[in-house]
């Protein structure tokens, strides 16, 4: 069986920085794959490569067995790949439903661009887009906030709107870059539950997440990066128990004696 996503020997060099240095990985359909690694290890760069926002220096990308390494970023969405960002990127003067409605179809940065884009759609298409937006807002449990502005919502819900926006393009693969950053424990648990529900719906996901306990609870597989290298892959437990992963997080000495990583998971 062909994997849904295949990343083969990808290198990304920013000047002298080797952000990714020969990374290969695969994601099977239905998987929820976690990426761990210290700050600066290349996690966001890998998500950028997979979504084609970052051009690899070399390497190959395949989705459903077909190369898309030369597909421009704005066409990746139509392949069935969507993402959320490390920081909230909602448009503040559009309502929640409007933010979701533009989906990832428009990687617009300004209100005029969005309004213009919307105006160019036929009435029928606008209606269809709105129906999809309402459906995904319901999916993430946010129907009652659809007419609110992002700034009126608590941070945790703003992040949830971002997930809805990514879902509006009906992706087969969703990449989430630290979707629970800045959230409290209860909010993190709720996002974890949502990602598990999306997995049950059949959505394949790649998740960058620092909370290893959450990762252990929801991920079906994991990889670890360090200095742009893939240093471990397997089940979440195999990955966090890998000596190289412990060393990357804790330093060699500490890794021999102490395991807050495993304590976090067992607690
Ligand atoms: N656009 C860029 N230009 C130059 N260096 C970058 C750029 N993006 C990332 N880097 C560098 O690449 C490395 C990996 O970064 P990143 O993928 O953001 O790590 P992570 O998400 O794991 O924290 C870091 O050293 C970072 O400073
Ligand atoms: Mg990052």
Automatic annotation (TrEMBL):
This protein's UniProt keywords: ATP-binding, Nucleotide-binding, Transport
PROSITE patterns: ABC_TRANSPORTER_2
SUPFAM superfamilies given in the database record: P-loop containing nucleoside triphosphate hydrolases
GO molecular function, one term: ATP hydrolysis activity
Gene3D superfamilies: P-loop containing nucleotide triphosphate hydrolases
Record Pfam families: ABC_tran, BCA_ABC_TP_C
A GO cellular component entry from the record: plasma membrane
InterPro entries per UniProt: AAA+_ATPase (IPR003593), ABC_AA/LPS_Transport (IPR051120), ABC_transporter-like_ATP-bd (IPR003439), BCA_ABC_TP_C (IPR032823), P-loop_NTPase (IPR027417)
Domain ABC transporter: 5-252
UniProt cross-references to PANTHER family, sorted A to Z: CONSERVED COMPONENT OF ABC TRANSPORTER FOR NATURAL AMINO ACIDS-RELATED (PTHR45772)
UniProt name for this protein: Amino acid/amide ABC transporter ATP-binding protein 1, HAAT family
Species this protein is from: Micromonospora inositola
